[in-house]
Write a structure and sequence with these properties.
The chain has 470 residues and is an alpha+beta fold. It contains eight helices and 21 strands.
């Protein structure tokens, strides 16, 4: 699809003002919306790429769900979209005066500004992880400086939810998808959980404080660096942070190799980071960094960025029953079902986690989102996609008490709601006892369970019954 002429009217509700940039899904335009507000308009033009179309529709879904439930001030704001017939598009509110955080790096930034960015980003991520009543946990999987916009007032806007993983996307295990210098260890094996985003946020914070990226933009080198950090207790983190000893300890926790050893939430990490900076006698005055040279200034479009998914994606991802529509055809009204090959978690005897000679990857000259090749011995895809499970919509029921096992860290909540108080977190692999009470939702079921002397509620997506219970 050729670039659209500007200025011009587009799809009744938009007046195109100027072309901004092109990404993996198509071109981005600055436009005026029907209410007079300025928007960023992403027009899909990769009509024959089924994989990218799946990511495009995934972001459209999540942005719309966030807006309908409770628009978060630090997440890109959905305005309108069209997936009925070409040209397909997603419009979000334009971030006035925005710069990518990436454009401000290359030097140490003021600790107060770092604390502010981390706190606001953590708030957005925790909302995705626990805030949506049906789709959480939404794991971003691509937290990096180029996906954090800084507006004219110094506030953060998190963008690009295209590869975010959540129960409604039907992704079982998708190994190796992310941006290499900001990938957590578990990301290489498809075992992402909310703490995965915390790991990436800690890498961003470290880079802001030191002016240096901790991990290289090369798969094998990044894997070896992660193993070295684990082996030497993050010696390089402590060395580069120098006299900021308290800050280094907080970073070491957020960058723990095992997700269960990290902070219980991104907000907890942000809080401890601020306390540590204060203990290290750092001024927390929120000093905005100077604007970069004009050639490095990034325009503020808050839609899916340039998602550089490698060509290997088509070898791993299989879209079922939802091809990219041809010209004149209607697009599917629901998100494509996706089944991806899974990689089993290693046992303790299989450490170190990475086998560099087996895990391949494509080096990108600039950090971009890639799909790292998984080992050749990958198991076959799992049976049923999450989104295809049939769930009852009746009120709370009572079922026989059975044992459940947590697939990943899952909050135990006081009531069956993602807005409820978190009593504690059930670690991956831990077992709890169901009381027999449950409350079905559209995409999952709440189970009442007892764990660690507390009784609360967890979700069936991440707490699976053992011993024959459903």
């Amino acid at each position: 699809m050729p670039r659209l002429a500007v200025p011009a009217r587009f799809h009744q509700h938009f007046e195109l003002e100027r072309y901004v940039a092109s990404g993996q899904c198509g071109a981005v335009y600055q436009a005026r919306y029907k209410d007079g507000s300025r928007v960023a308009l992403k027009v899909f033009d990769k009509e024959h790429d089924k994989t990218v179309f799946g990511y495009f529709t995934n972001e459209q879904l999540l942005l719309r769900l966030v807006k309908e439930h409770r628009q978060h001030p630090h997440i890109a704001e959905y305005m309108e979209s069209n997936l009925v017939r070409p040209p397909y598009f997603v419009a979000t509110r334009f971030v006035e005066g925005a710069r990518e955080l990436h454009s401000l790096l290359g030097r140490s930034l003021a600790p107060g500004f770092v604390a502010r960015v981390v706190k606001q980003t953590a708030s957005a991520l925790d909302y995705l992880h626990t805030g949506h009543p049906e789709y959480s946990p939404i794991i971003h999987r691509d937290v990096k400086p180029s996906n954090l916009l800084i507006d004219a007032a110094g506030n953060v806007v998190l963008i690009d939810l295209s590869i975010a993983r959540h129960p409604g996307y039907a992704i079982d295990d998708e190994p190796g998808l992310g941006t290499i210098p900001y990938m957590a260890p578990e990301q290489y094996l498809g075992g992402e959980e909310p703490a995965t985003d915390q790991f990436a946020l800690a890498l961003v914070a470290f880079q802001m404080l030191t002016g240096k990226a901790l991990l290289p933009n090369n798969v094998k080198k990044a894997q070896r660096k992660l193993e070295a950090l684990r082996a030497n207790q993050h010696a390089q983190v402590h060395a580069l942070l120098g006299s900021l000893t308290n800050t280094a300890k907080v970073m070491q926790t957020a960058l723990a190799f095992e997700p269960s050893r990290r902070f219980p939430s991104c907000a907890a990490f942000a809080h401890e980071l601020q306390r540590a900076l204060e203990a290290d006698k750092q001024s927390l005055a929120e000093t905005m960094p100077p604007a970069p040279p004009r050639s490095r200034t990034y325009l503020g479009y808050s839609v899916m960025g340039a998602v550089g998914v490698s060509a290997a994606a088509v070898l791993v991802v299989t879209l079922l029953g939802t091809p990219v529509p041809n010209a004149g055809e209607a697009a599917p009204t629901t998100l494509p079902r996706v089944v991806l090959a899974s990689v089993a978690a290693p046992s303790e005897s299989q450490q170190p986690l990475f086998q560099p000679e087996e895990l391949g990857g494509r080096v990108q000259p600039v950090p971009t989102t890639v799909l790292v090749d998984a080992p050749a011995s990958m198991p076959t895809p799992s049976s049923a996609p999450i989104a295809s499970r049939k769930l009852s919509t009746v009120a709370a029921q009572t079922q026989p008490a059975v044992t459940i096992k947590a697939r990943s860290a899952e909050p135990l909540r006081a009531t069956p709601s993602t807005d409820a108080l978190i009593l504690l977190r059930i670690p991956p692999g831990a077992q709890a006892i169901r009381t027999g009470r449950e409350k079905p939702q559209r995409l999952f079921t709440w189970y009442e369970v007892t764990y660690g002397g507390r009784t609360g509620w967890c979700r069936s997506s991440y707490c699976q019954p053992l011993g024959g219970g459903r």
